[in-house]
Design brief:
InterPro entries: Glyas_Bleomycin-R_OHBP_Dase (IPR029068), Glyas_Fos-R_dOase_dom (IPR004360), GlyoxalaseI/FosfomycinResist (IPR050383), VOC_core (IPR037523)
Order of helices and strands: EHEEEEHEEEH
Helix content: 10-25%
Number of helices: 3
GO molecular function, one term: transferase activity
Largest sheet: 4 strands, mixed
Oligomer: single chain
Keywords: Transferase
Strand order of the largest sheet: 1-4-3-2
Protein name: Fosfomycin resistance glutathione transferase
Domain VOC: 4-112
Shape: globular
């Protein structure tokens, strides 16, 4: 039986650029690097950057990272001042910044949780919403 998410691997074209983005801008902890990749951590998340042909999704697929509400405004301002590319504007519960990494992988910095989202859906359900 599955017990949780083990790790994420993202294909990157330029390791040094991606390391700088994830470590210096997003605040992840670099653990190790080698010729074609690196392992990073953020809390219990294990992220692998693997040098390969990066072909990120152009749909709504994305990775969302938690941030405390008090930290969001300053963090978002710092990312924007660094010139990150934004791919979407937030229209849902909680503050969010939707950005792309140097290879175009779609990320989200989000204030909120599944429980806060479900609470909003009780008041304003999506069209066709069914509680399971």
């Amino acid at each position: 039986m599955l017990t949780g998410l083990n790790h994420l691997t993202l294909a990157v074209t330029e390791l040094d650029t991606s390391l700088a983005f994830y470590v210096d801008l997003l605040g992840m902890q670099a653990q190790v690097r080698w010729d074609n990749g690196a392992y990073l951590s953020l809390g219990t998340l294990w992220l692998c950057l693997s040098c390969d042909a990066a072909l990120p999704a152009r749909d709504y697929s994305h990775i969302a990272f938690d941030i405390a509400e008090a930290d969001f405004p300053g963090f978002a301002a710092r990312l924007r001042s660094a010139g990150v590319r934004e791919w979407k504007h937030n229209r849902s519960e909680g503050q969010s910044l939707y950005l792309q990494d140097p290879d175009g992988h779609q990320l989200e910095i989000h204030v909120g949780s599944l429980q806060s989202r479900l609470a909003v859906l009780k008041a304003r359900p999506y069209p066709g919403l069914q509680w399971l």
